[in-house]
Structures are given as structure tokens and as C-alpha cells.
Design goal:
The protein is 50% helix and 12% strand. The protein binds one RNA strand of 77 nucleotides through α7, β9, β10, β15 and α17.
Length: 583
RNA sequence: GCGCCUGUAGCUCAGUAGGAUAGAGCAACUGCCUUCUAAGCAGUGGGUCAGGGGUUCGAAUCCCUUCAGGCGCGCCA
């Protein structure tokens, strides 16, 4: 058992309870120790950290939960808690983790952390910085997260932006939780949709050159189609004017979608999101992976022929019906390349596969899950995050989004108008699977009340305090607050106001929040955590002065401020949001 | 018709893998800047957790059902 190696308070407590249960296992006649639930009480008066284990054991032990709790507490108090060793040579001796352990309500065991423990953890955060905030939940396991994957047939719209923000934040969180993460964008460059884009561009091309060509019925009508046609004219002149689409369709299709793809990549980059890898659907065909993945399924006995088509028997894995993979006309279905793509992910050695889709694709989950199970992936290793629609409003009035008519609001337009930080933050203040109202005017004009500024403001405020301190010659420079030396440690011991201790406790909760967000794939938990941390800091700031005549207290509070700043920066970086030093 | 998601304060949403007295922001009202950034703070009011039934020590959370909204149910992509 190693204490103080991570900025964590959960593990220490779990270890202690576990030891107590080991001691009680025999008298209780238990074979094994149950899972230990740890939670943060909603009310600070109830303690800093609590367990419900006693209530969970009532059924097995047939005793009242309070009686069980008493036995556990007794075991902890008599011989479990080891004193924390001195922090380093020359330290001031050991101390207890807990100030008190109490039984409350129906059988909660409430632990209150000692000030010495909190001060020691603060020191750790200051000395180790961001690295103390990384956990090893993932143990380096490889996770692949595929997101956005918009068809390269038009610019990204706001819904894609939401998926991008969520996916990117999730990846950051998974990395912080110790997973080895790859971010991937899947390019649907092989199907009829890109061909339709090519036809649309070709029609515009002919029209621009004075030819009265018909426009494809379901063609893409956005202005960008014409821009691509203009670009082609600029580069090749009238070379294709007298040719048919059959003759030059490939050129138009390739040119068009590649140009769109470049636009998409740029939009994402300007939104602050960069992918590790882009996988082309077409390439899967060219490298024969579609055929070979179907062969692999066939060898496993999951492919059969019926009505002149080939089917994947996904009902073996809980799907509603079997799915066609090769049509009667011999063509592959879209699903066939999806099979190849997901098999390819497995072949690349990922332990867990996370797909982030628009919620309108939810009907696809069972069949993809079937594919992965057929190839041997345990079903809990495949996760789909559904991104619900974004309802775009302007002063409460819905903004029309009709892709067919070509007038839909692009991500770029929103980001240009509102800003990337605000847009991302708003996307991350809601669970992914709940519909989101995004009012452009409110996001922009009520910016003073915008939660993103609330968090950033706390960061900027602390920066300002440090500027002030430097001006007064109190602290040479911000991170030079020497947290190693004994003087700084004595100063920290002066942090004993309720608000100060609350802030430290909040800081210690971070790793739990990250792990929870990683396990549940819910980045918005970080957003809420940051708002809470900023809230208690703002409150503290208004109640207590950081810089005062008391040199030691000033030093202590500057250290606390620095710790908060480290945390705010860490959290904001998870969300892909900046931490400005001035606002 | 079948399936998935959602329903929590006037509005927008959280509610931590079943826990303690259900929270935040906005909106409304009352205070706080000659001292580190008022993009802030302190306080007040606001709830049949859509309705009903069940599971248990304990339910906003799990199960069944009704209602309401959204989205899916092609050999389309």
C-alpha cells in the first residue's frame, strides 16, 4: 500500500476499509469481501468521504447496518490505520489520515480527513503538478475512439461540432485516466453519396460554362458545390465541357470530396480538434479488406445465401433481423464496408472500441455489436456514444436547418460568431444523449453570464493575484513558490479556514471525477466539476484576502491559489478550452 | 405497429453505477466595489422528480404500465 503517490483520496480510504474487512472476514464467516462503494456526501456536515458498505452487508450478515458499521469502525480504529509516514527525511513525523470516523443515518460510515492529510496532498499537487492528476485506471490499454466521420459531401454542421467536442474531450479524459487512445475519423468516400456530390459539381460546372445541364434530383445544392465547380474551371478550363459524366465522373467525384475533406479537416483544426488517423472506406475496398472480412465471417459460419443475396446472421447476437452484405446485383452494401472497418479496428489490436454517432444512427448499434461479437470482442468492450441533435436557436426562434435546400448552419459559422471556447463548453455542459438547445444570441450576448467565463474568470483572477504579488515583491514568480522547503510547509499549515479546507477537498475529488467520466464516457462531468471548483474559489476570494500583511499566511494562500490554478488549467484542457490569464 | 432516447424549479439542465434534507445557472427580488479583476460574492422565493403500480432497510435512479416529445425501423448512404 503506497500512500501519497497519487492525488487521490479514494484509494487510501478504500484500502483502509478493505483491511478492516479482511480482519472481520473470519468472525463474520465470509468467503470474500464485497465491492467497496465510496461516495462523497452531498453535505459537508456529513463528512468528506463515506461508505455504504455496512448497509450492503445487512442481508448477508443478518445484523442491523448500524451494528455492522460499528464493528467495521472498531476494526479500523483499533488496528488498521497506519500512521502516514513522515513526508520525507527531516519531516515532522507521521499523522493520521482521519480527523474522525462516524456512523450516521441508517448505517453510513463517514470519514473526515485530517488537516495534516489535506496539507500533505496540497504539497503533492504543487510539487508534482499535472502529473499527479493522471491515474492508471486504463493500465495503458489501447482504446480507439471514432468520431465525427461526417460524409465528405458538405461542410460540417453544428451537430458534427457537438460530436467533435464530446469525442475530443472524451479522448483527453481517457488519456488522463491511463488509456492509450487513438482518435480516428472514418471517411465515407466510396459510396453513392460522394458520387452524387461529383454529379452535382459536374452539373454546376456545365452550367457555369453556359451549358443548360440538368441538376441531379437529390443533388447537393449548397453554394459550396458551385465553389468547387469554379475551382475546377480555374484549374482545368473547359477540358470536360463536352464530356459525359461517365467519362469524367471519377475526376469530379474525387476532386470534390477531397476538397470537402480538406475543408472539414480545417474546420476541425480551427475548432481545436486534430485526429490521429483518417481511415478511408475506399481504401478498405482497394486493399480487399471488405472481401476478406466477409470471408472471415463466412468461415465462422455467419454468412448465408438467400434470395440471391448474401446475409450476415446478426440475429445470433441479438439483432432484430439478419442483414444483407452482398446485394442481388452483386454489389456490397454499406454495411459490408462497416464490417470490414470494424474488423480492421480489431486487427489493429484495440482493447476497447468506442464509436460516437449521431443519435439518428442508433438503429445501427445491434448490427455493429453483432459484428464485433462475431469476431470475438466481448460486448462490454464496444461502446457507442449517441450524440443527440442540436436545436439551433436565435433569440428563442429556431434557425432553419434544411440540408436539401442547402441552407444549413455550419459549424464554422457558429464558431466564427460565438467562439470556439464557448461553443465547446456549451456542448459539454449537457449529457451527450440529451437534446441540446443552442441559442446563438444567448451564447454570445449574455457572455458575462456564460458558465465558461465563470470558470475562466477564476483562472484569470488567480493570475491577477500573482501579478499583484510579484509587483509587491512578495513572490518572485508564480511557480517558484517552493513547496519542497520546510518554510513553505509551515506556511501551508496555516490553511485552516473552512473555505480553504473545502477547496483542498474539492481538488482531491478530481481523480475520482476523471475516472468516473472515463468509465461512463461522460465528459460533461468535468464541466460540472470545474464550475463547482470555480464557485468555491470565487466565494473564498470574496471572503478572504490572499495578499495581506501576514507574510506566512500570504505565502500559504498563494500556494492554495496556485493549486487551484493547476487544477482549472488541467480541467479546461480536458475540455479543449483555453485558460486565459487576463479577461 | 416495433425499437431506442428523453420527461427533475417559470426557462436551460445536473443529480456522481440504489443512499442521508433533490442541486446549479438563467429569470425575479434584497444587499456588497477608495483594499488582490463586480465576467464576482452574500441572501430570499421557487419542486406531486410526467402519472400509476411494483422490487427493498432505502428509488429521480431498477422493473411493469399509461401519457407526452424526439429519433430510428430499406438488398439507401
Amino acid at each position: 500500500m503506497v500512500y501519497l503517490n497519487l492525488l487521490f483520496m479514494k484509494q487510501e480510504v478504500v484500502d483502509i476499509i478493505q483491511k478492516a474487512l479482511e480482519n472481520l472476514k473470519v468472525p463474520w464467516g465470509l468467503d470474500s469481501i464485497p465491492e467497496i462503494d465510496i461516495e462523497i456526501p452531498r453535505n459537508e456536515a456529513m463528512g468528506d468521504i463515506a461508505t455504504t458498505i455496512a448497509m450492503g452487508l445487512t442481508k448477508i450478515l443478518k445484523k442491523s447496518p448500524r451494528k455492522i458499521a460499528e464493528e467495521i469502525v472498531d476494526a479500523i480504529k483499533t488496528n488498521i490505520i497506519p500512521p502516514i509516514p513522515p513526508l520525507e527525511k527531516g519531516g515532522e513525523g507521521g499523522f493520521d489520515i482521519f480527523e474522525s470516523i462516524e456512523i450516521a443515518g441508517p448505517g453510513f460510515i463517514n470519514f473526515r480527513l485530517s488537516k495534516a492529510f489535506l496539507h500533505a496532498k496540497l504539497e503533492q499537487l504543487l510539487t508534482e503538478g499535472h502529473s499527479s492528476l493522471r491515474t492508471d485506471l486504463g493500465e495503458g490499454r489501447k482504446v480507439q475512439v471514432e468520431f465525427v466521420s461526417a460524409n465528405p459531401t458538405g461542410p460540417l454542421h453544428v451537430g458534427h461540432g457537438r460530436g467533435a467536442a464530446v469525442g475530443n474531450a472524451l479522448c483527453n479524459i481517457l488519456k488522463a485516466a491511463g488509456f492509450n487512445v487513438q482518435k480516428e475519423f472514418y471517411i465515407n468516400d466510396a459510396g453513392l453519396q460522394v458520387k452524387l456530390l461529383g454529379e452535382s459539381v459536374f452539373a454546376r460546372y456545365l452550367q457555369l460554362l453556359g451549358n443548360d445541364a440538368p441538376f441531379p434530383e437529390d443533388g447537393y445544392r449548397g453554394d459550396y458545390v458551385e465553389l468547387i465547380a469554379e475551382e475546377i474551371i480555374k484549374r482545368t478550363g473547359e477540358e470536360y465541357l463536352n464530356k459525359s459524366f461517365e467519362e469524367c465522373g471519377e475526376f469530379f467525384t474525387n476532386y470534390a470530396y477531397k476538397m470537402m475533406l480538406a475543408d472539414i479537416a480545417k474546420d476541425l483544426k480551427d475548432f481545436g480538434i486534430v485526429f490521429d488517423r483518417w481511415q478511408s472506406e475506399k481504401e478498405l475496398y482497394e486493399k480487399d479488406k471488405v472481401q476478406s472480412s466477409l470471408t472471415a465471417l463466412q468461415q465462422k459460419g455467419f454468412i448465408y445465401e438467400k434470395d440471391g443475396a448474401k446475409w450476415f446472421s446478426s440475429t445470433n447476437f441479438g439483432d432484430d433481423k439478419d442483414r444483407v452484405v452482398v446485394k442481388q446485383d452483386g454489389e456490397y452494401t454499406y454495411f459490408a464496408s462497416d464490417i470490414a472497418y470494424h474488423k480492421d479496428k480489431l486487427d489493429r489490436g484495440f482493447d476497447t472500441i468506442i464509436d460516437i454517432w449521431g443519435a439518428d444512427h442508433h438503429g445501427y448499434i445491434p448490427r455493429i455489436k453483432s459484428v464485433l461479437e462475431a469476431f470475438g470482442l466481448p460486448k462490454e468492450k464496444f461502446r457507442v456514444i449517441l450524440i443527440q441533435m442540436v436545436a439551433l436557436l436565435r433569440r428563442g426562434e429556431p434557425v432553419q436547418m434544411s440540408k436539401r435546400a442547402g441552407e444549413f448552419v455550419t459549424l464554422r459559422e457558429v464558431v466564427d460568431e460565438v467562439g470556439a471556447d464557448i461553443t465547446k463548453f456549451i456542448f459539454l455542459t449537457r449529457r451527450a444523449d440529451s437534446q441540446l438547445e443552442f441559442d446563438i444570441e444567448i451564447a454570445k450576448e449574455q457572455s458575462a453570464e456564460n458558465p465558461v467565463f465563470y470558470v475562466q474568470y477564476a483562472f484569470a483572477r488567480i493570475s491577477s493575484i500573482f501579478r499583484q504579488a510579484i509587483e509587491k515583491g512578495i513572490s518572485g514568480q508564480q511557480s517558484a513558490v517552493s513547496s519542497h522547503d520546510v518554510g513553505a510547509r509551515r506556511c501551508r499549515a496555516l490553511l485552516k479556514e473552512d473555505e480553504e479546507l473545502s477547496i483542498i477537498k474539492k481538488l482531491l475529488q478530481y481523480s475520482m471525477v476523471v475516472e468516473g467520466a472515463a468509465l461512463s464516457c461522460e465528459p460533461h462531468r468535468i464541466t460540472y466539476y470545474l464550475q463547482e471548483l470555480a464557485g468555491i474559489f470565487h466565494s473564498y476570494y470574496n471572503k478572504h484576502r490572499v495578499i495581506s500583511d501576514d507574510e506566512q499566511l500570504t505565502n500559504a494562500r498563494l500556494q492554495l491559489c496556485e493549486a487551484v490554478q493547476i487544477m482549472l488549467k488541467e480541467g479546461l484542457s480536458m475540455l479543449g478550452v483555453s485558460a486565459p490569464e487576463r479577461m
